[in-house]
Amino acid sequence: MDKKFFVELTNDLYRLTILFPKEEPIRIKIRGLADDILTDLITILQGTSTEKREAAKRVERSIGILESMLEIAETQKWVKEEEFESIMESYSSIRKEIEEFNKLQEQQKVAEKPQKEIQKPEPLQEERKSTGRKVVSLNDRQKKILEILENGAKVQVQDVIDRLDESVTKRTIRRDFQKLMDIDVAERIGKANMTYYRLKE
Asked: 7 lies in which domain range?
C-alpha cells in the first residue's frame, strides 16, 4: 500500500458518501475521519519515527470509529450493500497492518526496558482439520464455515447463512471469511454479487 492507494481509497469513500442524504450529519463525520486517516497514513509513510508512532495510534483508533459509522450508514440502505464491501475491506486491511505495526512498536519498547524476566505470551490454540491446514483460534461458526468450504467447490455468503443453524448477518459471515483468509485457508474470487469463497489451494 502506498500514497496513491490511500488517496484513491479516500476518493472512493467520498464518492460513496455523495449518495447519502445531504442533510445527514454522518456524511460529514465520515468524510472528516477519512481526511484525518489519510493525513496520518501519509505521515506514517513520510514522517519521523516519533511522528509515525503517534500517527499509527491515531489511525488504528480512527479506522475503528470509521468502520462503526459505515456499518450504521449501511443499515440505512442509502447505498447498495456491495458498494460498502470493498471500501470496508480496504480500511479493515489497513487497520490490521497498523495494529501489527503498533504491536511491534510496543515490543520494541519492552525490549528497550531492562527486565529480569519477560513473560512470553501463551501460544495460540492450534488444531488441524481434515485438510491438514492449521487453524488458529476459530470459533464454532468459523469451523462450520470451513467444513462447508471443504464440502463444496465455492460458496457465497448467502449459501453459508442458509446452511447455518443460527441467525447471522451477511456482515458477520464476511468477517468470518476474512478471518479464514487472514490465516490463509480460504480465498475470495469475483466482485460484488459475483463474490465467491473457496478453500485456498
From this structure: 3-112
- Residues 85 and 141 both lie in one domain: no
Nearest C-alpha neighbor of 142 from the set 189, 168, 179, 197: 179
Q: What is the pLDDT of residues 42-72, one digit of tens each?
A: 999 898 988 988 999 999 999 999 989 888 8
DSSP 29-95: HHHHHHHHHHHHHHHHHHS-HHHHHHHHHHHHHHHHHHHHHHHHHHHTTSS-HHHHHHHHHHHHHHH
Higher pLDDT, 5 or 121: 5
Axis-axis angle for helices 81-112, 49-75 (nearest 10): 150
**Do both 134 and 103 map to the same domain?**
no
If asked whether residues 138 and 195 sit together in one domain, one would say yes
What does residue 184 show for φ and ψ, rounded to 5 degrees?
Answer: 70, 35
Rounded CA gap, 126 and 45, in Å? Answer: 35
Specify whether the backbone of 129 is left (phi greater than 0), alpha (psi in -120 to 50) or beta. Answer: beta
